[in-house]
């Protein structure tokens, strides 16, 4: 269950992320230069300039109380977090230690969300614009929070939603259409001076749609872009128009303090030229030749200049470091000529779906497999001689690859490109396909954590998403086939993306927008001639479509369910092919909410079905009296966890196990004064169900477990497939609840190839640990006082609290922040299950719930066994020699 | 700083305390690695250079305060703030939730012990090595080969041995071993076994 200290990093890796960059600034004061970033994920971190690795990191609350409103880097790092009340904190930039903090509560809670913050002359400035009325400005001592002079109110009826802040100036366009005026005010100066100019002095258009945005990346001069065409600077109480044209509409521009002059820097993604960068001198308007790049091969969607620092080298040249934030959440650290120093794939801080994909076998193995494939063999080698020559051929091929491998052994290790992505002997090597919230699909090598390919789909909305492996790589020469079903960002219609998970290239349907909104999607259980499983989608108007169309006749014995989370209304459909097309027919419905429509009922928090890959190979549990307790092994069972208000018990959590083919309820349970946990906190495997909830009465987390049994006699003859419609009997339910002495954020259960190995439940805790709990501890049959029989069976005596020992922590001291989901997948050997934890960080490892019984230990002493063997052989020959000599001597006597 | 922060009617409070680093341990930057979680991360506090912490904007009620460090274990504390703003800190007991064992407030959090995440690898010891079945397999035949002939030279033991072998032969034990030696040694020792066989024949 636990590892040795020298096994750190042997089977596991962790990748730490910060999330999409919201604010970033260079720390130039401390000796080791760093990049300080604050992110949308409420993380404050320092990144190493050379490698991009995290030097230190602070993770704030994930709720709005952790939102970062301001990042200011001088000799100290200052942050403002929260949303009324706010917390102002000062951090040491080199170590990350907290220096001071103070809390600030605004009286005016209604307008607080429009607050603006900045630091000026060692004072924290808070500005609150009240639209069409006035601006409130308050300054605080940065260290102590003492109010330096009370709030000052500037009357400004011209303030509206479209105003931009370029500290300390606040600029608005006001007035009727056609005679708009541009107004700006330095909100911190004692003497109020409003600059008021007609807008059309600066733009020649007749119509202005109010498009105005400030310069990015902590611009050295206060300025803004107006109508995506002109840059206006605020200088000497006046507007100054730069005579440099803005290249295009979606350009990110900033003014930087260069070594000798101020430079206007622009970055954009050109359709043909790729990522482009251009720089002009602010004073002369001339182009700066050194800072320029256009890289056809480097594409950054909607690049945004996040932070720029320029120095001059000895040879009078500009040396710039530019941090670029892409729309795909990746950040790139680029030199002035466009050379990328490092990239961080920050979209991985927000993974929404994970799929493990098997790798294809190597070419030689594929050849051998096809040779022994019955159908193939019958087709091609009718005579015995053909088969024999084929055998010789493949043997020769094997020999060749062996020799080749010996020759290039060192080179093969060094280069790990897609060519090396072949299945290993134990099928431990896989590709993990991760779909991130921003719409980026990433293929990752599970052993190294290296990103193999990435694909950005801006139109993919990931609010509800399903991933299907429609063809595994087991069928050479056919490639693996993976389909992602989501919704289109703009239309809300279904969107299907099909790709080869090994290479990341689009295949089959490619990227296909459907004509309607989707209710449900599923994969056909029977594959077509090309070994491809068809995809069935159910539209809102209850019609279905099958991809590819030729698979429609394969729709047979298909059932689907649709659950509405808010009303807890579940419907079941039967899918049939009537000779022309496949149709869906509603066959059952269930109101899990309890109340009728309109009144506040329950809502579904989570639905837990079995893992698609789970195959159960043990029909029951052997009891001490040598009889068998048969499991209720229903593959159609789904556990619905609902939560809702209750007039007597405040709130109630209900768990209902529903057979989603027939609509029958197999088991149910309810917990009073309890709240369901927000994330994936119900697990379902085989006949075991477990779910977590928070007991408000006892103020603790509890885990309830259920096991379903048929009884001591089988309902069906051995080997018969389970049918939801043939069994009218309800299973016997064993249930129990245990206290979890920690806050759980995600739960999963280990999956193995044949489900013969013990089952362990994995719990991710808020402390950052992932703990492995054997199912034996959650077993609902744990007796209070075990009898001799129960002890013989191996049941543990009941204990209310679940032990969470440190040696059961999978990730040891590698803390994982905000684990949102745990994903498990079987390996090729029965003992091992692969685990990936996603959240702010990624962590991959493999677990062996019943120890690695089918694998030699990794510390197996190969040397000792070979020494012993050699020594034994030598000794036996030696003794033989001595014995013969002795015989000879004896004979002479 | 006042401990009460009024916010639109309902009061918000500050939970204060101090974390003590594990003794006798010089940990660089332990302040950054240590976090204060209230109610499993609902409110998060950070530690200053001297180990003191304050979690701001906490409402009234019962809160579990945990000190989270990747390597050291701290005991959690339940802090209760009543509607009047009075604080009470007590030990967390998830089983008997009404049991009160008070602890001082402001909190003083001391490291209990180091987490033992890893199994300890067995040390290399001579006895372990010697009792390793493989090593025994190697050593024992060696002993038989080297020591037994030495013992044979001693006349007394020779007598004893003879007696033993005679006894053993009486019970017809060696036939089994003969079969095995025949199997393993093949032709080279065939002569020897032949002679032995003759001996047995004579006896019969």
From TrEMBL, chain A:
<feature type="domain" description="EMC1 first beta-propeller">
    <location>
        <begin position="132"/>
        <end position="346"/>
    </location>
</feature>
<feature type="domain" description="EMC1 first beta-propeller">
    <location>
        <begin position="3"/>
        <end position="108"/>
    </location>
</feature>
<dbReference type="Pfam" id="PF25293">
    <property type="entry name" value="Beta-prop_EMC1_N"/>
</dbReference>
<keyword id="KW-0812">Transmembrane</keyword>
<keyword id="KW-0325">Glycoprotein</keyword>
<keyword id="KW-0256">Endoplasmic reticulum</keyword>
<dbReference type="InterPro" id="IPR011678">
    <property type="entry name" value="EMC1_C"/>
</dbReference>
<comment type="similarity">
    <text>Belongs to the EMC1 family.</text>
</comment>
<comment type="subunit">
    <text>Component of the ER membrane protein complex (EMC).</text>
</comment>
<keyword id="KW-1133">Transmembrane helix</keyword>
<dbReference type="InterPro" id="IPR058545">
    <property type="entry name" value="Beta-prop_EMC1_1st"/>
</dbReference>
<protein>
    <recommendedName>
        <fullName>ER membrane protein complex subunit 1</fullName>
    </recommendedName>
</protein>
<dbReference type="InterPro" id="IPR026895">
    <property type="entry name" value="EMC1"/>
</dbReference>
<dbReference type="InterPro" id="IPR011047">
    <property type="entry name" value="Quinoprotein_ADH-like_sf"/>
</dbReference>
<feature type="transmembrane region" description="Helical">
    <location>
        <begin position="862"/>
        <end position="883"/>
    </location>
</feature>
<dbReference type="InterPro" id="IPR015943">
    <property type="entry name" value="WD40/YVTN_repeat-like_dom_sf"/>
</dbReference>
<keyword id="KW-0472">Membrane</keyword>
<dbReference type="Pfam" id="PF07774">
    <property type="entry name" value="EMC1_C"/>
</dbReference>
<keyword id="KW-0732">Signal</keyword>
<feature type="domain" description="ER membrane protein complex subunit 1 C-terminal">
    <location>
        <begin position="686"/>
        <end position="892"/>
    </location>
</feature>
TrEMBL record, chain B:
<keyword id="KW-1133">Transmembrane helix</keyword>
<dbReference type="InterPro" id="IPR019008">
    <property type="entry name" value="Beta_sandwich_EMC7"/>
</dbReference>
<dbReference type="InterPro" id="IPR013784">
    <property type="entry name" value="Carb-bd-like_fold"/>
</dbReference>
<feature type="transmembrane region" description="Helical">
    <location>
        <begin position="129"/>
        <end position="148"/>
    </location>
</feature>
<keyword id="KW-0472">Membrane</keyword>
<keyword id="KW-0732">Signal</keyword>
<feature type="domain" description="ER membrane protein complex subunit 7 beta-sandwich">
    <location>
        <begin position="28"/>
        <end position="137"/>
    </location>
</feature>
<dbReference type="Pfam" id="PF09430">
    <property type="entry name" value="EMC7_beta-sandw"/>
</dbReference>
<keyword id="KW-0812">Transmembrane</keyword>
<protein>
    <recommendedName>
        <fullName>ER membrane protein complex subunit 7 beta-sandwich domain-containing protein</fullName>
    </recommendedName>
</protein>
<comment type="similarity">
    <text>Belongs to the EMC7 family.</text>
</comment>
<dbReference type="InterPro" id="IPR039163">
    <property type="entry name" value="EMC7"/>
</dbReference>
């Amino acid at each position: 269950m636990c590892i040795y200290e020298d096994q750190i990093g042997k089977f596991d890796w962790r990748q730490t992320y910060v999330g999409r960059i919201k604010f970033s600034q260079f720390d130039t004061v401390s000796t080791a230069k760093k990049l300080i970033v604050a992110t949308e994920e409420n993380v404050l971190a320092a990144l190493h300039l050379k490698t991009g690795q995290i030097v230190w990191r602070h993770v704030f609350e994930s709720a709005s109380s952790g939102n970062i409103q301001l990042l200011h880097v001088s000799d100290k790092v200052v942050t403002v977090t929260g949303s009324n009340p706010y917390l102002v904190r000062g951090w040491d930039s080199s170590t990350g230690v907290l220096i001071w903090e103070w809390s600030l509560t605004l009286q005016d809670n209604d307008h607080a969300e429009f607050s603006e913050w900045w630091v000026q002359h060692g004072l924290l400035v808070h500005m609150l614009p009240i639209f069409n009325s006035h601006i409130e400005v308050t300054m605080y001592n940065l260290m102590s929070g003492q109010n330096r002079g009370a709030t000052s109110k500037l009357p400004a009826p011209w303030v509206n939603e479209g105003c931009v802040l370029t500290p300390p100036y606040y600029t608005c366009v006001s007035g009727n259409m056609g005679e708009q005026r541009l107004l700006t005010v330095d909100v911190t100066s004692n003497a109020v001076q409003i600059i008021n100019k007609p807008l059309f002095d600066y733009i020649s258009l007749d119509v202005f749609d109010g498009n105005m945005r400030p310069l990015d990346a902590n611009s050295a001069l206060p300025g803004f872009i107006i109508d995506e065409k002109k840059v206006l600077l605020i200088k000497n109480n006046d507007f100054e128009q730069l005579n440099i044209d803005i290249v295009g509409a979606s350009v990110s521009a900033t003014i930087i303090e260069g070594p000798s002059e101020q430079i206007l820097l622009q970055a954009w993604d050109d359709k043909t030229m790729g990522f482009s960068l251009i720089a002009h001198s602010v004073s002369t308007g001339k182009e700066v030749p050194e800072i320029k790049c256009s890289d056809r091969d480097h594409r950054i969607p909607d690049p945004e200049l996040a932070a720029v620092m320029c120095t001059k080298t000895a040879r009078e040249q500009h040396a710039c470091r530019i941090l670029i934030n892409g729309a795909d959440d990746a950040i790139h650290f680029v030199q002035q000529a466009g050379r990328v120093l490092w990239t961080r794939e920050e979209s991985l801080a927000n993974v929404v779906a994970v799929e493990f994909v098997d790798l294809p076998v190597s070419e030689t193995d594929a050849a051998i497999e096809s040779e022994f494939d019955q159908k193939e063999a019958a087709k091609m080698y009718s005579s015995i001689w053909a088969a024999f020559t084929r055998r010789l051929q493949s043997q020769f091929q094997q020999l060749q690859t062996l020799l080749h491998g010996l020759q290039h052994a060192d080179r093969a290790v060094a280069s790990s490109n897609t060519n090396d992505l072949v299945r290993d002997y134990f099928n431990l090597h896989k590709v993990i396909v991760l779909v991130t919230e921003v719409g980026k699909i990433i293929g990752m090598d599970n052993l190294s954590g290296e990103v193999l390919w990435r694909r950005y789909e801006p139109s993919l909305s990931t609010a509800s998403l399903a991933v299907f492996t429609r063809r595994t790589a087991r069928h050479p020469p056919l490639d693996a086939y993976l389909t992602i079903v989501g919704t289109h960002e703009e239309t809300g219609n279904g969107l299907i993306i099909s790709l080869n998970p090994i290479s990341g290239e689009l295949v089959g349907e490619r990227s296909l927008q459907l004509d309607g909104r989707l209710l449900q999607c599923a994969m056909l259980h029977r594959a077509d001639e090309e070994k491809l499983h068809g995809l069935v989608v159910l539209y809102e108007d209850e019609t279905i479509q099958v991809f590819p169309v030729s698979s429609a006749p394969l729709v047979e014995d298909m059932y689907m369910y649709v659950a509405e989370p808010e009303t807890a209304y579940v419907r079941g459909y039967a899918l049939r092919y009537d000779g022309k097309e496949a149709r869906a027919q509603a066959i059952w419905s269930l109101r899990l909410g309890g109340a009728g429509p309109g009144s506040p009922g329950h809502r579904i928090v989570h639905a837990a079905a079995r893992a698609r890959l789970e195959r159960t190979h043990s029909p029951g549990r052997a009891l001490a009296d040598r009889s068998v307790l048969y499991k209720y092994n229903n593959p159609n069972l789904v556990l619905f966890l609902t939560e809702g208000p209750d007039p007597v018990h405040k709130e109630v959590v209900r768990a209902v196990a529903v057979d989603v083919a027939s609509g029958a309820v197999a088991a149910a349970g309810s917990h009073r004064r309890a709240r369901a946990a927000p994330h994936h906190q119900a697990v379902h495997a085989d006949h075991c169900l477990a779910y977590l909830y928070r007991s408000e009465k006892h103020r603790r987390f509890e885990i309830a477990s259920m096991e379903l049994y048929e009884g001591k006699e089988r309902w069906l003859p051995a080997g018969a497939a389970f049918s939801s419609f043939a069994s009218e009997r309800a299973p016997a339910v064993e249930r129990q609840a245990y206290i979890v002495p920690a806050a759980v954020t995600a739960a999963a259960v280990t999956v193995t190839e044949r489900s013969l190995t013990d089952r362990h439940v994995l719990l991710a805790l808020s402390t950052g640990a992932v703990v492995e709990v054997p199912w034996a501890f959650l077993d609902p049959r744990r007796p209070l006082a075990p009898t001799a029989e129960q002890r013989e069976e191996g049941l543990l005596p009941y204990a209310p609290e679940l032990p969470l020992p440190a040696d059961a922590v999978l990730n040891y001291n590698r803390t994982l922040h905000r684990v949102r989901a745990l994903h498990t997948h079987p390996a090729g050997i029965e003992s091992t299950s692969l685990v990936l934890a996603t959240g702010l960080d990624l962590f991959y490892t493999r677990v062996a719930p019943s120890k690695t019984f089918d694998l030699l230990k990794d510390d197996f002493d190969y040397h000792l066994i070979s020494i012993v063997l050699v020594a034994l052989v030598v000794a036996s020959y030696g003794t033989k020699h001595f014995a013969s000599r002795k015989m000879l001597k004896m004979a002479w006597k | 700083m006042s401990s009460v922060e009024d916010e639109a009617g309902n009061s918000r409070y500050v939970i204060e305390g101090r974390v003590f680093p594990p003794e006798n341990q010089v940990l660089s930057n332990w302040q950054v690695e240590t976090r204060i979680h209230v109610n499993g991360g609902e409110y998060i506090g950070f530690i200053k250079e001297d180990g003191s912490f304050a979690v701001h904007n906490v409402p009234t009620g019962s809160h579990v305060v945990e000190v989270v460090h990747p390597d050291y274990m701290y005991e959690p504390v339940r802090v209760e703030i009543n509607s009047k703003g009075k604080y009470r800190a007590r030990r967390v007991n998830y089983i008997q939730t009404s049991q009160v064992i008070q602890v001082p407030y402001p909190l003083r959090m001391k490291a209990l012990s180091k987490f033992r995440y890893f199994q300890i690898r067995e040390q290399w010891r001579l006895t372990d090595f010697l009792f390793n079945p493989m090593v025994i397999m190697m050593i024992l035949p060696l002993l038989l080969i080297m020591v037994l002939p030495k013992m044979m030279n001693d006349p007394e033991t020779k007598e004893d041995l003879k007696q033993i072998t005679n006894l053993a032969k009486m019970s017809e034990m060696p036939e089994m071993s003969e079969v095995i030696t025949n199997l393993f040694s093949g032709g080279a020792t065939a002569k020897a076994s032949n002679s032995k066989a003759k001996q047995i024949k004579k006896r019969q």
